[in-house]
Amino acid sequence: MDTASKTEPALRLEALTHTFKQGPRELKVLDGASAEIFPGETVALLGPSGAGKSTLLHIAGLLEQPASGKVMIGGVDCGALDDKGRTRMRRQEIGFVYQFHHLLPEFSAAENVVLPQMILGRDRATAEARADDLLATFGLTERADHRPSQLSGGEQQRVAIARGVANNPALLLADEPTGNLDPHTGEKVFAELLDLVRNSAVGALIATHNMELASRMDRVIRLSEGKLVDETIVTAEISTD
Ligand code: ADP
Ligand code: MG
Question: Molecular function (GO) terms listed (predicted)?
Fold first, then answer.
């Protein structure tokens, strides 16, 4: 990256709109959603179920095209890319973590972290060293050769996070990444995710229902009536039992 691009937001969303056809009805899920996420920033994406958080993350992650508006990643206008360019951008610059881990069941934890790196052209030794490092960060060295089904839910999700950041993306998009875990494990895994993100230059946009978790991030934005609005969480009102 040249020096000019370092000051670019990791992600810039400009006036996104998106509509779904539901039978005879049209549902306007996004209606002028704009936001910027800077490198090294962790931003919570709040909004009730059905607000359009997943849709927004899919569009930001170039998995879906908006009806109108712009997605810029590291200063690049992704609307101007062809299919190949979008795929390259997605693999190189974006990491995803989902509520359900979507690990490859036939491969070990380590291989699940190695494979996406090799798809990008890293050699096996480099990819394995990176996977070892990441799994060690999560205390999973002893579990590296286990398949997903042999891991606990929290361990599976840690592997999914390791996979999400393995390619050193500029942007991490996470969709309720600990929503499938029990509250205690979810808390722990979430804290580890934030640590990992904060120790890197990645900009992270993380959808969550959990206000307490959201309050730990640098900034909170809420998806409301298709628009993104900044929100301040008053931490004094949050119970910390
Ligand atoms: P959230 O992640 O905030 O719960 P979603 O982005 O999943 O919200 O969904 C927003 C709205 O769009 C919901 O009403 C949902 O039913 C609708 N929706 C999502 N995906 C589709 C689709 N592929 N076709 C039709 N409607 C959809
Ligand atoms: Mg969702």
Answer: ATP binding
